[in-house]
Amino acid sequence: xxxxxxxxTDLKTQFYTERGVVRAxxxxxxxxxxxxxxxxxxxxxxxxxxxxxxxMRLIEEPGEVVGGEVDYMGRTIVGFDDTGEELxxxxxxxxxxxxxxxxxxxxxxxxxxxxxxxxxxxxxxxGQVKEFIEINRDIDGxxxxxxxxxxxxxxxxxxxxERYDDYPHEFSGxxxxxxxxxxxxxxxxxxxxxxxxxxxxxxxxxxxxxxLVDDLQEEFGTSFIxxxxxxxxxxxxxxxxxxxxxxxxxxxxxVDEIFHDTQHxxxxxxxxxxxxxxxxxxxxxxxxxxxxxxxxPPSGCRFHPRCPDAREPCREVAPEFRVAAExxxxxxxxxxxxxxxxxxxxxxxxxxxxxxxTTPAGxxxxxxxxxx
Amino acid sequence: xxVLDGLDDVGxxxxxxxxDGLSKHFQSxxxxxxxxxxxxxVEAVDDVSFDVAxxxxxxxxxxxxxxxxxxxxxxxxxxxxxxxxxxxxxxxxxEHSQREIRPxxxxxxxxxxDPQSSLNPRMKVGQIIExxxxxxxxxxxxxxxxxxxxxxERVELExEYYNRYPHEFSGxxxxxxxLARAMSxxxxxxxxxxxxxxxxxxxxxxxxxxxxxxxxEYGLTYLVISHDLSVVRYIADRVAVMYLGHIAELAEKEExxxxxxxxxxxxxLDAIPIPxxxxxDARGTLEGxxxxxxxPPSGCRFRTRCPSLIxxxxxxxxxxxxxxxxxxxxxxxxxxxVPGYPDESEGxxxxxxxxxxxxxxxxxxxxxxxxGTLVEEVCRSIxxxxxxxxxxxxxxxxxxxxxxxxDRPQYALPADVGDGSHxxxxxxxxxxxx
Lengths: 372, 434
Known about the structure:
The complex is a heterodimer of chains A (372) and B (434). Chain A is α/β, with parallel strands linked by helices and 372 residues long.
């Protein structure tokens, strides 16, 4: 097994709003090994993007990383000391300038969903790629330009040399997304965090980009954290998967086991609710209700109000995130569900989960949606 | 005399909507100069024909910019067509003024993609649902109120939500309110423009199931516009695949998904990631980008990207030879062939270019005759760095000589799955046509 390059342990990020504290990420642990693609899946509001922003230390006011550890190849991106009363940032935590100069871009790069907002409209596309390469690698001038053109060609921009001097508005959405990938790859980072990079694209363009990521990953051995809500994309490219629900990871394991030896009812429900392109399904089984707000998460297991398998203890006991099943390659398959614990789940009666079906989302959820 | 006098009574399964040769061309420029010199047309929808039967769900699928939304809006006469006709329940909508067809609008409703912006935030849910009934002078005030509450229940919301405002609801609930509003005038046809694409997956299924239930109960006809082939496979009975303003293929759902005939449909189906890691396979990715709808390609509009372009008759080539010539043509068109010029201005000797071309595209020897001469000419242009000439040469002498460029393909074939017919806009099937 290749070495672990990123280790996230019990990460907690909160947002302080006028209405109260939103625990957007609440105790998330996962790791990334050299050369693998790790998926972070969940519905909107699950905390996927906040997790990746926290890893990059890009959380801004009114948000704050309040606990946990993020370790990148022996360097502490996030770390705290417990003084007994409160948690204070540890001394060995990288400073803001170290993050900027040593980590972001050249070690860990991030690709955002909206390519129009990530490119500067008044500079040429090629110039922006070249600038990125100059900042993050020790090459400049002609060499950097040649490298920029090469990267643009590699990501499938036709007539890359001629289009070097084009402006972002002269590119289509798919091509702009490819430019962002070229920028990220041009810096030869060790890890790329891709935040829904293909969500806004048409399927044929998405197919082109997934193909490209496969090829490039093979060639450069780059690791990826792939953030998405699309189980199809996960099945297609990920090696390991983390399923998030309401600020927590509920299931984690190799991709085959996540789909074929599912251990958490939420993952199961998610898989049963998606229409399939490859076969006609008679009836979809939707997940009842909507995801509640992170301001006042449900007690016990956060999924219990919508869970088809919920029983009495689920209302009170918060499940532990623990190994739930054997896997083919020996890497852990964890889940946070009382089914895998010894707290009397199997002896208890079922909860009447249908009761919550018709509850309106309420001002709470709607207000949060508005904030996003 | 009202238009409604000509209204046919349409039974289940009979044709409720006829679209015949419908076109919508927009002017790409407006203003004085465009008026003086004329402007090029954007052919958003061009000569599209199909029928819709009462009680069925027909889906228009395609990628962004293929004209599916324009087609739907043109059918509803929200945009005036530039050609062709649309008949709804036997009445030709294109012959009448907006004012005359207004009473018909209660039978044709529409719901939109974004549940956030399609509900007026200042109106209560009850008012929103009652508005269309009021506009068409239907029922008394008390009846409308009662009906609005009934409808809330029908779309699986609560009667009590009548007095709430849209911001109090989640995306899925808002889309249900949209459904209730569309249902309020008891329509026959509901056009749904990307009805679930703004919703989270788990909520998508809820709304799709509600749409199905309503259809069963009221015999509704849906025209669904979507880019999502998985959603379409779940709810549609028949599917029309659009590409650049044309219908590429139209067939019953099972036939289309299990037996796709158009190379574009195949590429589209191949590209969808399947939610099962065990069915990972080599994706056949489609190369290139969709061309501009201003001066779209002649004949088959997909021909500029088609991997199965038909060989022009004038070249007498074996299958393998044609495939290699086509690969070379595409490489020149997209400039993916890198001859390796020494620097930014100098060219290369013709021989060097020819060697590189042979190595990469014709390892078993260049084709003889006209095709061989053409490859030589192209190499000469590349050697002189005259890429525009090289591109023009392959486009004019290879691609545009193909039947795919000279004739627009429109063939009706018998379906393999089910007993319907199968429309294919591809010359590969010219011999199977009925």
